[in-house]
Amino acid sequence: MALLLQVLQIVSPVFLLAAVGYGWVRIGWNYDVEFVTRLSMTLSIPCLIFMALIRSDVDPLVLRDTVLATLAAYVGVGAIVWALLRIAGMDLATFWAPLSFGNTGNIGLPIALFAFGQQGFDFAVVIFAVMAILSFTFGVWVVAGGGSPVNAIREPLVWGTLLGSLFLAMGWSVPAWTAATLDLVGQMAIPLMLITLGVAISRLQPRSLGRALWLCLVKLAICVAVPVAVGLVFALPAPAFGVLVLQVATPVAVTSYMLATKYKARPDEVAGLVVVSTLLSVVAIPGLLAFFV
Fold first, then answer.
1. How much is the pLDDT for 118?
2. What is the mean pLDDT of each run of 10 residues along the chain (293 residues)?
């Protein structure tokens, strides 16, 4: 019972804030998802990542191993998903990115913070940054059916990651007034992302929910098994190990739906994946936390 209460305390703020966004739209109030997403992705999240990295007191060698393990995990997940989609004759542009990448920002970051504390959050930020770079490069290339992955270098999130990593490696800091400003901006990120998640889900028009269910179950199995195997191979310490599995196993992100809409990659199918995988996460994430926390 004590474990159940601990897990509920961890996940309840995440789902309650998402419920606020869901209820906001159902009441009939306006919420500009495009504006809030742009604000988060171009300003708040880069500040959050930058400050988390320059303040991290995690052993740099462990951070390095976490980065390498994250790359290995996503390469492994992506390769397995690619092979299964090819075998099943399903469209790569529609299904590969949603099944390979998860909602490490909206859901993964706050849960890592609530479950593992500041140290776990530091690991989660690193994993999120690696995932975001992969998603904005190869992921967008697959969804768009071509184009240059180099375009990702224009993303502020990428620059926040690179600059934060440089400051961490060199032991640099920023003036107190700059740190206070960046902190204030970065603190918007998590509540905004969670509320926006609820808003976006309330507006989705999913289809093919039956197929979405089995695809999401396959995704969950792959996205738990692969990071567990990778974490064991890299001998990651407990917090990094748990956060890696949690982040990789997060449900399909709403950004996958937005990209599918932008590039006309059957967005209704992706909407079904977002809804079903998010509902599954209500059970799956507490189950993972019960094992790793």
1. 86
2. 64 85 92 83 86 82 92 97 96 93 87 88 88 82 70 72 83 91 90 83 77 94 97 93 95 81 80 88 88 78
Q: Phi, psi at residue 12, to the nearest 5°?
A: -60, -40
SS3 content of the chain, % helix, strand, coil (to 5): 85, 0, 15
Q: Where are the domains of the chain?
A: 13-19+32-292
Note whether 74 and 101 are within 8 A (CB): yes
Give yes or no for a contact between 223 and 102, defined as CB atoms under 8 angstroms apart: yes
DSSP codes joined into one string, 172-187: ----HHHHHHHHHHHT
Q: Mapped to the 3 state alphabet, what secondary structure does 186-225 carry?
A: HCCHHHHHHHHHHHHHHHCCCCCHHHHHHHHHHHHHHHHH
Element holding 132 (H helix, E strand): helix 109-134
For the residues of 55-84, what is the DSSP string, one character each?
H--S-HHHHHHHHHHHHHHHHHHHHHHHHH
Shortest CA distance to 131 belongs to which of 167, 157, 95? 157
- What does CATH list as the number for 13-19+32-292? 1.20.1530.20
> In the chain, how long is the greatest CA-to-CA distance?
55
Question: What pTM was computed for the model?
Answer: 0.84
**Whole-number Cα distances in Å, 105 to 9, 48, 177:** 19, 11, 26
For residue 32, report the phi and psi dihedrals to the nearest 5 degrees. -85, 95
Q: How far is CA 186 from CA 56, 90, 179, 253, in A?
A: 15, 39, 10, 20
**CA–CA distance, 195 with 111 (Å, rounded to integer):** 14
